[in-house]
Amino acid sequence: MTAWIEAALASTLALLSLPAYGLSTLFVVAFVSATLLPMGSEPALFGLLKLEPGLFWPAVLVATAGNTLGGAVSWWMGRGAEQAYEKLRHHGPAHGRALRWLERFGPKACLLSWLPLVGDPLCAVAGWLKMPFWPCVAYMAIGKFARYVTMTAALLWMFPGRLAP
C-alpha cells in the first residue's frame, strides 16, 4: 500500500511540475505555504521563472493570489479557533503585548503577513481578534505582492540566465 501511495504522489508531482502546469502548481504551493504549514513558495516561483522568464508578472500575480487566499484561510481558521476557545473559557485578563500591538494597528498589521515564521500566524490572530476580513485580506495582498516582486527580482538579478531544459 505504501509503495502505491508513493508512486501516485511521485506521478502527481511530476505532472504538476511540467511547465504547462507551472502557474497552477505555483498557485497551490503559494496557497499552502500561506497556511500554518511550514513551507515556502519563493523557490517554486523562482524555478518557474528560470524555466519561463516571460511569465514574471503572471507568475507574481498568481503567487500573490494563492498566498493571499491562503492567508484568508488562516484568518478564518483563527476566527473559528477564537469562537471555539471562547465557548470553553471565560474572558480572562488583558491580552499580551503582541495582541495589544495587533489591536492597536488593526488590519494594517496584516501588511506584515509576508514575514517568515510570524506572517502566517499573524493572519490567524487577525481572525481570532475579529479584525475586519476584507481590509485584512487587502493588506495581506499588498504585503505579499511586495514580497514576491522584491524577492523574485532580487533572485533573478543574483542568478541571471535561463536554466537548461
From TrEMBL:
It comes from the Bacteria. The chain crosses the membrane at residues 54-77, 137-159. Keywords: Membrane, Transmembrane, Transmembrane helix. Pfam families: VTT_dom. Residues 56-150 form the VTT domain. This is Putative membrane protein YPO3302. It comes from Piscinibacter sakaiensis.
